[in-house]
Every structure is written in C-alpha cells, then in structure tokens.
Amino acid sequence: MRLAIAQINTTVGDLEGNYALILEAVRRASDLGADTVLFPELATCGYPPQDLVTRPDFVSSVEKMNQRIAEDLESGPALILGSLRKAPEGSSRDVYNSALILDQGRLQGFHDKILLPTYDVFDEARTFEPGGVASVHSIRGKKVGIAICEDLWTTTLSGQPTYSRDPGQELVEQGAEILLSPSASPFHAGRKKIREQVFAAQSKRWGVPICLANLVGGNTELIFDGGSFLMDPDGSIERCPSFSSHVALVGGVSQSGLDAAFEDTNEESLQEIADALILGISDFFQKCSHETAVLGLSGGIDSAVAALLAVEALGSGHVRGVGMPGPYSSIGSQEDAVDLAQRLGIDFQMISIQESYTQMRSSLEPVLGTGNWGVAQENLQSRIRGATLMTLANSMPGAMVLATGNKSELSVGYCTLYGDMCGGLAPLGDLSKQQVYGIARLEKFRGRIPDSTLDKPPSAELAPDQVDTDSLPPYEQLDAILSGWVEQRLSFQEIVDLGIPEESVRSVIRLIEISEHKRRQSAPILRVSARAYGVGRRVPIARSLDGWQLPS
To answer: What pLDDT is attached to residue 263?
Structure first.
C-alpha cells in the first residue's frame, strides 16, 4: 500500500466545494504515487454537521455526492472517505458517521463510528447511530482496520480505559496490519501533544502503525489544527503541518520521535494559539461570505490584538478600524489608536460619540436625574459605540463587526450587553488578559502594536481616571482564579489552597456565575482552551450560587 494523507479544509454543507477539494487532493496524491488516500472525518459534508443530518434532503444529497465521487475516481486510488451513511429503518438515529471505502467506481466497504463522544464540544450521540461491528478490510494488498477518531481514544494518558469497548484492539485481534483513522479532532492549547501521546501509546500497545488524517480549518467556534500523522509502534512519526491543508505520501523516512516536539515553550504555545485564531477568523469570514472586519480601536490592548489578528487573517485591505472617543477618552489612547492603524496599514476613521452621548443623557435626565448614574452612565457610552459600529458594518456589503473582549472580562461580566459585546465573532473570547498581552509581545508581531498600548494600565475609560483594577483584582490573580474555576473545575477551597485570598476567590466566582446571561448573548467565541464559553461549557442561567459552590 502506498498511502497518502489528505488533510483538507472542508465547509459544513458545501458539498460541491468539498467535492472539489477531494478531487484535487486525490490528483495530488496520485502524482505522489499513492494508491490509497485517507481523508478526514465527514469530509464529504463537513464537520460538525449537527442537526443538518436530521434533514432527509441533506442526507440524500450527501449520498448522491458519495456516488459521484466514486464514479469520477473509478480509475484512481482507493479512498477511505469520511461521510454519512443511512441507518436501517427502525434505528434510533437516521445516519451513521461512517468511513467509506471507495474503489473501482463503487463502494467496497465501510466502517461506522462505534464510539460517539458526548463530552466537551461533542454531542454526536444526539444525531448519529452508533456502529456495531469493527471489521478488517483488504485494501491494495494490506489488511486494514478503520477506526474513526474517538474509536481509538479508548485510554487516558495514564493508560486507564475510557470505554467498555476498544475498537482498535478488536481490529488488531482480527489481523489488522495498520489502523487508518479519519479524524476531526479540534484544537485547543496542548491538544496536539496529548493527541500524539495517546496514539503513540496505542500504536505501541497494539504493535501496528496508526495513520490519522485530521481535519484542518475553522468551522464556527471550532478550529481544527490538522497535524495529521503516521505513528509507528517504536514512537517514530511522520507529521503533516498544522493549520494548513496538506497532501503527503507517508511510510517513508520517519521524523524524530515525540520528545523533541513536546518541549514547547510559552512563546511557542502562544504562537500556536495565534496561528489557530488567524485560521479561525479567516475561515469564519470566508465560509460565512463576509469580506471586511469592522472593529472599534480604543487604544487599548484588546482591540489592538483583535485588529492585528484580523489583518493577519484577512489582509489589511479588509479591516476597518474606528476610534470613538467619548467624554473620558484620553488623548494618549486616541493617538495610540491612530498609531496602531498606521502600523497595520488599515483604513481608520475617528467618530466622536460626545454629541450622541450628551443628547442621550439629556433625553434620559427627566427620568434618571442630572447626577452621576454610575454603571448606567458608563454603559451608555459603550452602547453608543456598539450602535455606531453596527451601523457602519450594515452600510458596507460583506462587512461584520468583531467583538474585542477577552475571556477574563467575559468571565466576570466586565463587558456591556449591546455595547462592546456587539459583533458576529469574538476572536479573543477564549483568551485570558495575560494571553492577550502574550500574543501582542510575540517576536513575530514585534513593532506592530505601539509600546504605549503595551505599557499603560488597562482601562475601559468609561469614567474619570478609570483603570480595570478599580473593579477587578490584578489580572494575574483574576486569571488564576478563572483558570481554576472554569478550565480546571477546581472547587472554591482548592483555589484558595493555591494561595489566593479567600475573599478574592469568593467575589470572582460570584461574578462568573451571575454573568452567564451575558455570555449566552455573546458572539461565537473561537475556542483555543480546553474549556471555552459557548459550545464547550454549558451551565444553567437560573441556578443557586450557594451551598456547594460558595460556602458561607
């Protein structure tokens, strides 16, 4: 078998577009001398299709496309192609998540995914029928076991079983000489390391190579990093690149073992996150038919990094910055916004909200009085800015507003509904404040963001001389609490035991839990952590905060 991996970037529901990608990948694989090509999970229809698979017209269209692909590639290599397959009448679900073996113009066999994940961002048991039998197939002279993604994630890093069934073991016991795995394993920081460690352990345990073709690209909140590989039982590995489409013939000279790849520094980790966000922004705009990003530039770090990543993803000609000074905006911040726009080479306009703010205050003073309205007065400025950005975007064909808030602020509700939360995508919504600063200081981006933006204290500038620490703990402390409570799911006491003051932990957790209604109204958040808001974390809005969460 001369095996090629086709690491492609599919779009959910774009059957014609995915068809073109599949044919081009087969052509390239054939040129490399491949006689078998392994594709990612659900390559025909895109991943994750979610409730689209409950539509009979969608499933029928996918089936017709599968047949078309088989016929069009009759004389080419064999394909192991991730796609849908109808389940028999009377099944609990209508379709299988399947891998089709297409060769000589027809379907030669298939494997239906057995283990359907329902944790984290996955909800496959809701829409797919689980497969039954794991069978070995003869493909181009090789006894091949096919196992789709989760079918091989059957042990933890410590070797503990995670399922009662082990499809990989079943296939090896039936004589499989190699395991081929169509995959859609989404990115989060550190995921590549975990993925390779798990599959290295599985390959060693079973004594056979494992070839994984992982999806690449952004699909709504999820980013898929690719990083496909052929793993040998001795730990040697042939890797495909991350965050880009790639077709590679595997089975030649292996690269270095795992250890070298896992000695990543904080700089490398932040660069990987930045690369993921750039891909996520680019694909979100392309796949949703948007062309231009519009965002407010306050002179602060969040809007600066959001603009930088948007330029990397879309090009400077497709990013439009807007400065919207209000009654408390400093001259320095306005100058920083202008400086940033010039450094990034983007279109920039300054639109004062002072007059609009004054008029809105005047219209509300008969009800609210002439004094200081507190947070209502602050948020009025933010909402005027949100309306300004949305109006500008509405006036431009193909434009969409980017929300610039980060995970630290979104966690504790330090954001304004219908104000700075406005937008169609929140690219920084899964980054802590410290990670935002870390990306801004990456060597790759040196000189792109003004030093004055990096050095000044963070501030929303919604009140005189306001800084974030007026309302929040220092970000080093805040982010540590957020990491413990949201991402690691530690208890109140476990976080206190890390050496953080009890009252800080109590106040931050309470802010997190009472702000869930805001997060439900957030723009889609690009996921880069192990537990992102939105698709990766679902909690009730109406619930008690007492007892087990916050002991008295």
So the answer is: 45
Sign of CA dihedral 269, 275, 279, 280: positive
**Amino acid sitting at position 542:** A
Q: What is the pLDDT of residue 265?
A: 66
How far apart (Å, rounded) are the C-alpha atoms in residues 243 and 214? 11
What is the rounded CA–CA span in Å between residue 170 and residue 135? 8
> Residue 435 sits in a domain of what CATH number?
3.40.50.620
DSSP string, 68-124: HHHHHTTTS-EEEEEEEEEPPTT-SSSEEEEEEEEETTEEEEEEE------STT--G
Report yes or no on 527 lying in a domain: no
CB neighbourhood size of 444 (10 A): 12
* Alpha-helical segments (H) within 233-265: 258-261
Range of the domain at 297: 271-465
Token readout for 168 is 């990989």
Catalytically annotated residue among 45, 113, 287, 415: 113
Q: Is the pLDDT of residue 261 over 80?
A: no
Q: Mark whether 210 and 184 lie in a shared domain.
A: yes
Q: Of 263, 293, 325, which marks where a domain is finished?
A: 263
Asked if residue 461 has pLDDT above 80, the reply is no
Question: Do 233 and 285 belong together in one domain?
Answer: no
Question: Domain for residue 216, yes or no?
Answer: yes
List, for residues 141-175, the tens digit of each pLDDT value.
899 999 999 999 999 888 899 999 999 999 999 99
Is 41 known to be catalytic?
yes
Q: Which of 45, 124, 149, 272 is catalytic?
A: 149
Q: Which DSSP helix (H) or strand (E) runs through 350? A: strand 347-350
Q: Is residue 546 part of a domain?
A: no
Count other C-beta atoms under 10 Å from residue 128's C-beta: 24
How much is the pLDDT for 458?
A: 86
pTM assigned to the model: 0.93
Do 258 and 127 lie in one domain? The reply is: yes
Q: Among residues 41, 238, 312, 513, which one is catalytic?
A: 41
Q: Does position 548 have pLDDT exceeding 70, yes or no?
A: no
Alpha-carbon distance of 247 to 214, in angstroms, equals 11
Final residue before a domain boundary, out of 465, 500, 533: 465
CATH for 124: 3.60.110.10
DSSP 151: G
Does one domain contain both 218 and 241?
Answer: yes
First-to-last alpha carbon distance for the chain, in angstroms, is 65
